[in-house]
Structure formats: C-alpha cells, structure tokens
Amino acid sequence: MMQMALIGLGAGAASALLFASIISGTPFSIILAYLAPLPILIAAIGWSHWAGLVAALAAGIGLAAAFGNPLFLVSFLVATGLPAWWLGYLTLLGRSGVEGTMEWYPPARLLLWCAAVSAVMIIIVVPTFGLNEESFRTGLQSFFERALRDGNTGASPSADLSSEDIKRLVDAFIKIMPPIAAGVSTLINAINLYLAARIVKVSGRLRRPWPDLHVMRFPAAAHAAFALSFVLWFVPGAVGMAGGAVWAALTVAYGILGMAVMHAVTRSFGSRTFILSTLYVVLVLFWPIIILLAFIGVADAIFDFRSRAGPGKPPALT
Fold first, then answer.
1. For the residues of the chain, what is the DSSP string, one character each?
2. So what's the pLDDT on residue 166?
3. What's the predicted TM-score (pTM) here?
C-alpha cells in the first residue's frame, strides 16, 4: 500500500507539472498539458487504480495549493484526473471466463468510454457559461471580454476587437466550441490511454494481453447514440449543445474504428504500408477527414467489410 501511495504521489506531481506548463503560453506547453493524464494512467494501469486515484487527487491538490485557488482541484479532477483514473480502472477490469480464462474489458468499450467522459466533461463545463442559449451567449461574451482585457493589461477590450466582432465570434463559438472541445478531448484521451498501455507493456507490468485492435467492434447502442446525438445537435439551446458534444466525441471514436477497419481490410494488399502511411499523413494535415473515417466505421457495422475481406496477412518481405 505504501508503494502504491508513493507511486501515486510521484505520478500526481508529474501530472500537475505537465498541466501547469500551459501557463508558459508556448505551443510546446500545450502539447505537455495534453499529456497531463498520462502519468495517472501509467500509475493506474501499471500498479493499481488506487495508485491512479492517489495521483489524480495529489495533482489536483498540488495545483490548488500552488495557485492558491481551490477551483483548480475541481477543474483538474473533472477535466483530467478522474477521467484518466476511470479509464485506467476499466483497462484492468476483467472476469473469469470459460475454462478459467480471463475476459478483459473490451478495447472497443474503452474507446467509447474515452468519448463518453469527454462528452460528459463538456456537458458539465458548458452550463458554467449559462443554462440556455441566451445566457450561454452572454456568459461566453463576458468571458472573451475579460480575456481580452487581461491580455491588454487593463486596456479596453475594443483595443483589438470591437463589441460587434466579439458578438460574431461568440455566435460562431456557440455551435462549434462544444463539439470541437469534445472531439479533441476524445482524441487526447485515446492517445494517452494507448501510450500509457504501451509504456506499461514495455516495462513488463501490463497484466492483460495486448488486444488485437483490428477486430474491435462497437455495440448496437453506440450506433443509436451516434445517430440520435446528430439529430439532437440541431435542437436549440442546451440540448443542442450537449447533442453536438456527444456526436463529435463519438465521431472521433468512430474515426478511430474506421482506421482499425482500414488496417484490417488492407492486410493482404501489397501497397498496405503506402496506403496506411498516406492516410495517417492526410489525417494529420487535414483532420476533418476523420469524419470520413467515422462513416467507414459506421458502414463496417452495416456491411462488415472486415469479414468480407477475410483474415488476410501482410505480404512477404522477400
């Protein structure tokens, strides 16, 4: 127990430092802040979810003490700490199956949880600006004006942007901010979970076997949630904002599923490496293509491309 506590405290300190690096304002600091869940996940997957929970609490308390504001504890736990701990807990969740074999929590459901915790986080954060579209608009405009005023060291917010400019900016953000934030958060959670599992595997502490990600499939409930959230996105007010957040989070999850489909169906292709490399490069340079990959993931659920392609295998190197 003492070892878990020490591991948790060390991981919490690392996570807090990564999270706090954002105050430097450099582009690299943003990447470091995105990696803040990684130490918590490593502690949870490599040792125990209790070590992950200690890490999340230690990081939140450390940030609150360092900045002298208890809200840092709440904001860190909601945005980073508790989602990372929960994903680490689920990763090691298993039950005894037939003939004494262990059935581990499926990777497809872990990916859906990456989307779920991201959407829930956005749904929790959005009401802090207002409970309906008008109050959300007012709260968001006030936030932008304060940010501009602070950035201008006391100057009027109109020094850079007029009130009309801010209003147009707010109008654009009302529709796109929740979905973009949920989608980015889902991708960050998925990447951190994958990196943590890989690091723990290399260290020899991963207790579950590495899953075959090419064969993961989403349950039917995910397909229904994907379609329903898209419809709800067009509903005015808070319901629409929540629907947009859920749809964007699931779009990223389905996009990753679409990449798994591409990995599976190209196994027998001689140009497999070129196809996948090109796809990854295009995805990095033009991220909206993830919507196309999401539709590939949805289409696979209907037409089962992977079974039609057969198991296949990469071509011989000789």
1. -HHHHHHHHHHHHHHHHHHHGGGG--HHHHHHHHTTHHHHHHHHHHT-HHHHHHHHHHHHHHHHHHHT-THHHHHHIIIIIHHHHHHHHHHT-EEE-GGG-EEEPPHHHHHHHHHHHHHHHHHHHGGGT-SSHHHHHHHHHHHHHHHHHHHTTT--GGGTS-HHHHHHHHHHHHHHHHHHHHHHHHHHHHHHHHHHHHHHHHHT---SPPP-GGG----HHHHHHHHHHHHHTTSSSHHHHHHHHHHHHHHHHHHHHHHHHHHHHTTT-TTHHHHHHHHHHHHHH-GGGHHHHHHHHHHHHHH-HHHHH-S--PPP--
2. 63
3. 0.85
